[in-house]
Amino acid sequence: MKLIKTLLLALCVFQTNGQTANYYLSAEGKGGNALRSELNGIISNNTVIPYTSSSNIDTWDVLKLSDANSSNPANVNLIYSGSTTNGAQEYNGGNGWNREHVWPQSFGASTSQPVGTDVHNLKPADPSLNSLRSNLEFDDLGNFGSTVYYDGVPTGCKYSSSMGVFEPRNDIKGDLARIILYMDLRYEGIGNEPDLTVQENLNTGGFTFAVLSTLLQWHQDDPVDAFETNRNNIIYNYQGNRNPFIDYPELVDYLYGSNTSASWNPSSVNPPAPSGPCTNLFFSEYAEGSSYNKYFEIYNPSNAPISLSGYTVYLSGNGGSFTNTFSSNAVIDSNDVFVIAHASANSAILALADTALSGYSVANFNGDDALILVNGTDTIDVIGVPGVDPGSSWAVGSADTKDNTLVRM
Questions:
Q1: Edge to edge, what strands does the sheet with 320-325 contain?
Q2: Coil, strand or helix: which one is 108?
Q3: Strand duo 370-375 + 146-150: pairing
Q4: Fewer Cβ atoms within 10 A, N terminus or C terminus of the chain?
């Protein structure tokens, strides 16, 4: 192995307001149609992820991370039932979960086109409730409609097939509204893409979806939370684009509300957060050597010990996806490291290892794979780009990740 002392990526990886501002920089100062056009251009440059694939990262894999349950990351949150289920089982003959298209497939989000694989529009769902919702549009039902049950318990959702309406429970109304508005902004009929349009009137058919005024109210009543923000970050890591209405909720007013004639100046609304010392764990060393001589270390830069309980390492690889969780007694002391190595590595590596993993595991990585460090539902650090095949390795400065040891300094 060659020792290359260089920076792998950013030293402390997290999404700050300042980083988000850079993503939208070209839209700043614009208003009306110019703002809409610029935002569309920004978010349209995304990677198309396979809907289902046996050999590459697909939408199932991304949803297992983006919608992982914070208490049990092996589970995914189911959108309408409010329950969770094991993510790895996927559909499991109807006993697991499937992928709900929030903007329905029959209204333009067909999986035969890239629009149908856009993970921003997909949510894990119980198959029976996914089928019940079907392509019903969103609105408040008031005293009308029927209660939606899951395992005999009311979910807080209601529906009316005769009215063509589904009303989700209160704590996801804003999430779903921002997904619908994203789809309306992202898909403008450019090239072979559909022109999706959110509107006020129900049941008009085509590529339209309603009810706009209700969605705007839900956006206000159920604001963005930490789960939604983290989901946006994870999808960005895989798909390469973001939902602007999560990053800057006021954009809804600039595109659909009372500020459509005003210029958007996000720095005056959400000033960048001041930078400070890195206190998050991060990957500090990465060794992808010959044969099984592979290891990586996680560093604690803080002034106190950090328990690894609740942290998960994910391997997003061409040969499959693997996870590693930690026991409650796994702790990294202040300014110390935790080393994970392949069990068949040489004796010098194993002598330094805190954990040695055999077979197919997160330690069985190659130079073209990605490693992700997650705390609960928060993505803390990433090596490589999940869901993307770079060929044989990731470029890092003048070096790369194949047959090298890379150290952050």
A1: 320-325, 311-317, 370-375, 378-383
A2: coil
A3: unpaired
A4: C
Pairwise CA distance, residues 184 & 235, whole Å: 18
| Residue 106 Cα distances to 89, 116, 207, 209, 326, angstroms | 26, 10, 8, 11, 43
Angle at 325 between CA 48 and CA 246, to 5 degrees: 40
Residue type, 165: V
156 phi and psi angles, rounded to 5 deg: 95, -5
| Phi then psi dihedrals of residue 111, to 5 deg | -70, -5
pLDDT for the residue numbered 387: 56
Q: 0.85 cut: is pTM over it? A: no
Neighbour-count burial of 9, counting CB atoms closer than 10 A to its CB (0-12 exposed, 13-18 middle, 19+ buried): middle
Please count the CA atoms within 13 angstroms of the CA of 361 that sit on its side-chain side: 18
The predicted structure's pLDDT at residue 56: 78
Closest CA to 365 of 402, 396, 395, 391: 402
Check if the beta carbon of residue 224 is closer than 8 Å to that of residue 246: yes
74 to 228, 330, 355: CA distances (angstroms): 18, 19, 20
Structure token digits, residue 118: 């856009």
**DSSP character string of 110-170:** -TTSGGGG-GGGEEEE-HHHHHHHTTPEE---TT-SEEEEETTEEEEEEEETTTTEEE--G
Question: Mean pLDDT of residues grouped by 10 in the chain (409 residues)?
Answer: 33 45 89 97 94 88 91 90 95 96 97 95 98 98 97 98 98 98 97 96 95 98 93 91 96 96 76 52 89 93 90 79 84 94 94 91 86 81 71 66 75
Amino acid letter, residue 145? G
For 176, list phi and psi in degrees, rounded to 5: -70, -35
* Cα–Cα dist 152/306, whole Å: 41
Helix, strand, coil content of the chain in percent (nearest 5) = 25, 25, 45
Pick from 301, 265, 267: nearest CA to 282: 301
Q: Which two tokens stand for residue 171?
A: 């704590």
Would you state the pLDDT for residue 327?
85
Considering Cα of 243, then 249, then 253, then 259, what sign does the dihedral take? negative
Q: What's the pLDDT at 15?
A: 43
Residue 48 carries which DSSP code? P
Name the residue with tokens 């803390």: 380
Element (H, E) at 78: none
